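Before going further, learn to read the protein records used in this course. The integers have meaning only within a learned vocabulary of local backbone shapes. The record below shows the convention in full.
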Amino acid sequence: MTNEGQWLMRIEGALSAHFFQPDGSSRPGTDWSVGLKRVENTYPVMVRAYLSDDMTKRARADTEYQGQTVLGYINDLLAQGWTPDQGGELVITIQNPTGEEADVASKPWWRFW
């Protein structure tokens, strides 16, 4: 039995693609489909997530981390009083996990300067 005020949430799907930006460029990201449930009411929610430019290769490949970050974002919104009925465009930029430093570009082995 769950608390009537408690939100249940799960990732229902994800689509990675390049998305047009207001300046006309495109940027890679993922549209996450999240299902929310409270009592007997269910709500579909879409969150567009971009990865920070300095994201490590490991974090870029870790879709579980990215999905958990999206769920944490929605949980934070719900805790602030947001409800799925309010709608709105949900967009986030996912950063590196805490304690993980950005990949440092190294010079190719054939460059001497």
In short: The CA atoms of residues 6 and 33 lie 20 Å apart. Helices lie at 57-61, 63-79. The chain has one domain: 8-94.
